[in-house]
Design goal:
- It is a single chain.
- With 473 residues, the chain is an all-alpha fold.
- 85% of the residues lie in helices and 0% in strands.
- It is built from 21 helices and no strands.
Length: 473
């Protein structure tokens, strides 16, 4: 449900950004959002995951005092650390941004303020997850996304607030949802239960995850900063529109793999045919993912036309396929890492992501100054292909999964061949071919899968029977 709401919000804001902001203005928005995300990741110090880990145990043991101590200690520390980061950002921005336009200076202040304003919301969401209060969790997380979206759309479309409206809307939504979050966990907030020992436990568990999260940020978002430095804010804006469209791959397939893959692997790997079953399901994930990449790429120009995007944004279609394709490999990397969960080796995940971050930075330096946003897109593709390959090579030494490598290769080749046809159709200027490409490209890809034996009619029937049985039970 949360993923569906997030995807819907992204699609709702896309026409707002593409029609109301010039590429340069949206470049400021995208850069500010990227900086804010990095600051929030660092400011939390991993206390959210640390609190989650121990609160879940206290809840299972019905240890009320322990639960109160975990929540009070972690929430207080997270707010204080976030406040410190906010003050540092405000002080730094007062110096660095002194010559910037007034709206950019105000936007920077709002980005810094949101680091601390959003802290209670984040901590409350992790607490509700640990307590398995699913209804409250969905309500709070959905309220945060929906309120931010509505405030942003309203302030930009009706009040013509420009760039400042985006960050002001985020700050206002953070205040409202943080108050709601504190109310939802108020029974645990008791100052008398604050414990330095409990705080140390949370930090000891959560801090090691911060480098991995920052590595993820580098791989996914640092290219905006490189584009700002070596290209222009206008290119950042166009690239960010294309990235948002391509990111639909992650919002659908990435969410599915995160939610379903690990429980599935842990339930199957002890079975006699567990390795083969896991490998076969990975092939199905890859088929769905590549079909989604093709559909997103074919639909991008149609989507921009339907929402009446500014002409400058149509250049974003050149990076949509690459970003979606990169996110397919990001999902595959998660699939390939299954043996690290089976053998309980989480440190390897941090290593893989760290290596990916190093590769990404190197490629950004090499490609972006010369090729601009296309260099950023190719850097993203190469990074996630590299991390997926390294993850598979290392993970198979822990536990070998019978992946169907031939089929996986045919899926990728079929997707690339279909993309070539889409490119030819879009460059031809024939509106009928471009407009109908989401349909015929899927048929073309399906024909490739059937023709090469990657997928068969018998498998379709078998899957249909399994789905009917799952629905019935």
């Amino acid at each position: 449900m949360g993923s569906a709401i997030s995807l819907g919000s992204s699609l709702l804001l896309l026409p707002v950004y593409a029609t109301q902001f010039s590429p340069g203005q949206f470049g400021v928005v995208a850069t500010g959002q990227v900086i804010g995300l990095a600051a929030i990741t660092f400011a939390r110090l991993g206390l959210n995951s640390g609190m989650f880990r121990f609160l879940a145990v206290y809840e299972a043991d019905r240890d009320v005092q322990g639960a109160d101590s975990a929540v009070t200690s972690s929430v207080a520390a997270a707010v204080l650390s976030s406040l410190a980061v906010t003050l540092l950002m405000l002080a730094g921005w007062a110096v660095v941004g002194s010559s910037a336009p007034s709206d950019v200076r105000l936007s920077g202040d709002l980005i810094a303020a949101n680091v601390v304003l959003s802290a209670p919301t984040d901590m409350a969401l992790f607490a509700l997850r640990a307590k398995q209060h699913s209804t409250s969790y969905v309500a709070l997380s959905s309220a945060s996304v929906i309120l931010t979206t509505l405030l942003t759309a309203g302030s930009v479309l009706l009040l013509h607030g420009g760039v400042v409206a985006v960050f002001a809307s985020t700050a206002v939504a953070s205040v409202v949802t943080s108050l709601a979050g504190l109310i939802s966990i108020r029974n645990h907030l008791k100052w008398a239960t604050f414990s330095i020992q409990e705080l140390r436990r949370s930090l000891r568990f959560g801090l090691p995850s911060v480098p991995a999260l920052l590595a993820d940020w580098v791989m996914q978002f640092s290219d905006r900063l490189f584009l700002t430095r070596f290209a222009s804010l206008a290119q950042v804006g166009v690239y960010s529109i294309g990235y948002r469209i391509g990111l639909i791959e992650q919002q659908i397939l990435g969410t599915a793999t995160s939610a379903a893959w690990d429980p599935f692997v842990l339930s199957e790997y002890r079975e006699p045919e567990g390795s083969r079953t896991i490998g076969r399901v990975a092939t199905y994930f890859a088929i769905i993912g590549m079909a989604l990449v093709v559909f997103i790429s074919a639909s991008a120009p149609v989507l921009l036309f339907v929402i009446h995007a500014r002409p400058a944004y149509f250049a974003a279609t050149s990076v949509v396929f690459l970003i979606a394709f990169a996110n397919l490999f990001a999902a595959m990397q998660h699939l390939f890492s299954a043996p690290t969960s089976i053998r309980v080796r989480p440190e390897l995940g941090t290593l893989f992501r760290g290596l990916g971050a190093v590769v990404n930075i190197g490629l950004n330096f090499a490609l972006i100054p010369q090729f601009g946003m296309l260099g950023a897109a190719w850097s993203t593709v190469a990074t996630f292909v590299f991390t997926a390959a390294v993850t598979e090579v290392v993970s198979r030494r822990l536990w070998r999964i019978a992946y169907e490598y031939r089929k996986l290769l045919l899926i990728v080749v079929g997707g690339l061949a279909t993309q070539v046809c889409i490119q030819l159709a879009q460059s031809s200027g024939v509106l009928v071919l471009t407009g109908s490409s989401p349909l015929w490209s899927e048929l073309l890809f399906a024909g490739w899968l059937l023709g090469t034996g990657t997928f068969s009619i018998d498998e379709v029937r078998a899957l249909s029977r399994r789905l009917r049985h799952a629905v019935a039970t």
